TrEMBL record:
InterPro entries: Class_I_gatase-like, Divisome_Glycosyl_Hydrolase, GH, GHL6. This is Beta-galactosidase trimerisation domain-containing protein. Transmembrane segments: none annotated. It holds the Pfam family GHL6.
Length: 702
């Protein structure tokens, strides 16, 4: 039997089933698995990992059960077996929840011959062969294949098998499809022909992203209704990727998706481990109460796509644990039911066991922070998915700077800028929210008038929600600036000079200037604003004999204001976030941290003193507080895979106590030991002796 911690509560086959589905095993079968894999091995893995839910390959591109739906391709190795049904029965014997996986992104030749309109078409009018397996065809996600054919598959699976949900992977399409159906329907929607180039500033591209969002949202609703018509307690659950819900109508997602699944299976290239937890922050920025699951691959997530491989154990554990520390439920995926390399099993088992141990405390608490980093969905949705990471660079730089500064923070979606959401935070950081509507700007202005603070940078509010340039910053009044000239760049060899002794410019002893940005915006500061940094006039980077300053630094490069309502604003009119992300110059990290700390107007809720880099997550409820500290200190922190854990030494913490609270007990949940504390001036002081991968400080109020 499963350990009690892994056994679902009395929610089996009820609409609340997902509330006890907190650790997931996914098995994605290969076509020859029916004659090669051992189902009993996987039932044992369910037990070892304390998984209480599973996602299993069912159909779509290939059916792993004897499907009767015409043109639904059944594995040629199936014979008289039913691997999907066998795994479902095994999981149900363990009282596990079960979700069936479908993948509708490709079809075989027989379906293509019968329905050529199901095939996606490229911009040259050619039907799209699969880019990795040219023997099959890529489907159009926006037409009849998904709208008419796939509901029959979903209905059959829901009718014939004991499942709680159907999960779809690669259901959202692969860019613009130029088939006749898409051409006709997009023209009826927008009056335009389909866009040829993914240009965030092109009104036609913006119209296509809006049309796609409408089509995909409708698809979620239709598929969910199809599943519920057969099994009322069940749901259709779309794979959300890492898109922060920007591609969907939020009201319909709220109604039809009881939980959210993020497919960000591991880091790539020089991404840091905190990318895992970032997914959780971004999802709850829109739906703070909704469970979010993070899919983790056991193999490396690099461009060559070694999908049936194994990465290092510490890498797997770090990705799972950082996501869990930021509130994401763990889900691991294995491609291919055969297991020639078992080195992943123990790391997954250990990470899942750690989640099971921490879950009772952390799941009873609500994430909290004084600082919010705005998730600029209004801006990012104008970008094609393949270009979105470039558009996120400013935000990623601010995210990393806050991590290094030891400042706990949450994300706040610009799609839900209500007073209740904004008032949760003392400071809202807008790294480069270029596109903001008048209503969004008004909400942020009212927030500052109520006493909130803002740190804004680069092109924030220079465009409206449709991407059209403004003649003035939408937040000009609240930031105390006026636009003198539009953004200029890319440029080289730029600098900003320190000006005065403002706290935002502290910590640069010995320096008169620091590196500037690669894109700058000329602004004029309102009367009464303070100017901690000034632009140094441009000068050449070659010939070397010409590399010298020609004039005085007089134009504002950082503007700081104290606002009548009690809040503070800082405006940095250049791309400091992107520059920090690309260069990692410590001066930029310091400037970002200084700006946020000054905007807070006092010491933060948590301070940490000790060597190391940590991803912090603060949670609390009426009974206490928990601070999760994921140790990112590692020579492979920004280039994976992590080879081993590098324990951090002692960390001295102070944590502000809620008014009227005293500490009755303090415990390190991972170490399993009590820790002495003392209270001084409304703060609790304690020391964590050391951290290998994660420690959770749990304070219980008297």
């Amino acid at each position: 039997m499963l350990d009690a911690k892994a056994r679902p509560a009395a929610t089996l086959r009820t609409p609340d089933w997902y509330k006890s589905a907190t650790r997931w095993t996914q098995l994605t079968l290969a076509e020859d698995d029916p004659v090669r894999f051992d189902p009993a091995l996987w039932i044992d893995i369910f037990k070892r990992t304390q998984s209480n839910a599973t996602c299993l390959s069912a159909g779509g591109y290939i059916a792993y059960y004897p499907s009767k739906v015409p043109l639904h391709y059944v594995s040629k190795y199936l014979g008289d077996t039913d691997p999907f049904g066998t795994l479902v029965e095994g999981a149900r014997r363990l009282n596990m929840h079960v979700m069936a996986r479908v993948d509708p992104h490709a079809i075989h030749q027989d379906a293509a011959d019968a329905h050529p309109e199901w095939i996606a078409v490229d911009k040259d009018g050619n039907k799209r062969r699969h880019w990795a397996y040219p023997e099959v065809w890529v489907t159009c996600a926006y037409g009849d294949y998904n709208a008419q054919f796939m509901p029959h598959v979903l209905e059959e699976i829901a009718r014939d098998y004991d499942i709680d949900a159907i999960f779809a992977n690669r259901w959202q399409g692969h860019g613009v499809c130029y088939c006749e159906s898409c051409r006709t329907r997009f023209r009826a929607f927008s009056g335009h022909d389909l866009p040829i180039v993914a240009d965030a500033n092109d009104p036609v591209w913006q119209a296509w992203t809006a049309w796609r969002r409408t089509v995909l949202t409708r698809l979620v609703v239709d598929w969910d209704e199809t599943v519920k018509a057969v099994k009322p307690h069940a749901s259709f659950i779309p794979n959300m990727g890492g898109a922060s819900l920007m591609e969907f109508d939020l009201s319909l997602i709220e109604k039809h998706c009881p939980f959210l699944v993020v497919d960000d299976q591991g880091r790539r290239g020089t991404e840091p481990i905190w990318m895992s937890g970032r997914n959780g922050k971004r999802m709850r920025a829109t739906f703070p109460e909704r469970p979010v699951i993070l899919i983790t691959s056991i193999g490396p997530e690099e461009v060559p796509r070694w999908k049936d491989s194994v990465t290092s154990g510490p890498e797997i554990q770090s990705w799972i644990v950082d996501g869990a520390a930021q509130g994401m439920l763990p889900w691991f995926t294995k491609f291919n039911g055969v297991v020639p390399d078992k080195r992943w099993v123990e790391p997954v088992t250990d990470a899942f066991a750690l989640h099971a141990d921490l879950e009772p405390v952390l799941s009873a608490m609500t994430p909290t922070a004084e600082i919010a980093l705005l998730d600029p969905a209004t801006t990012l949705r104008h970008w094609a998915p393949e270009h979105r990471r470039e558009a996120e660079m400013d935000e990623l730089g601010f995210y990393h700077a806050l991590i290094e500064a030891g400042l706990p923070f949450e994300c706040l979606s610009d799609q839900v800028l209500t007073p209740d959401q904004l008032n949760r935070f003392k400071v809202v950081v807008l790294a480069n929210a270029a596109c903001l509507s008048d209503a969004q700007c008004a909400a942020l202005t009212a927030y500052v008038e109520r006493g909130g603070s803002i740190v804004a940078a680069n092109e924030t509010s220079l465009r409206d929600e449709n991407g059209r340039p403004r003649d003035e910053f939408g937040l000009a009044d609240v930031l105390g600036v006026r636009l003198k000239a539009p953004p200029r760049g890319p440029i080289k060899n730029t600098y900003v000079a320190l000006s005065g002794d403002h706290p935002v410019a502290s910590g640069y002893d010995g320096a008169e200037r620091i590196i500037g940005g690669t894109q700058v915006i000329a602004v004029e500061a309102d009367v009464g604003a303070e100017i901690p940094f000034l632009y140094v006039p441009d000068f050449p980077d070659l010939p070397m004999e010409e590399v010298y300053v020609r004039g005085e630094a007089t134009e504002p490069a950082v503007i700081a204001r104290q606002v009548t309502g009690g809040g503070r604003t800082v405006h940095i009119p250049w791309n400091i976030g992107r520059t920090f992300w690309e260069v990692l110059a410590p001066d930029h990290g310091r400037l970002i941290a200084n700006a946020v700390r000054w905007a807070l107007g006092g010491p933060g809720r948590v301070t940490i003193d000790g060597l190391g880099v940590f991803d912090l997550s603060l949670r609390e409820n009426e009974g206490g507080l928990a601070l999760a500290m994921v140790n990112l200190t590692n020579p492979m922190m920004m280039k994976g895979p992590t080879r081993a854990f590098h324990p951090a030494g002692p960390q001295r913490l102070t944590i502000a106590l809620p008014e009227g609270r005293r500490v009755a007990a303090a415990r390190l949940l991972v170490a399993g030991t009590d820790v002495p504390v003392r209270e001084e001036q409304g703060r609790v002081l304690l020391e964590v002796p050391g951290i290998e991968l994660i420690e959770v400080v749990h304070l219980v109020w008297a």
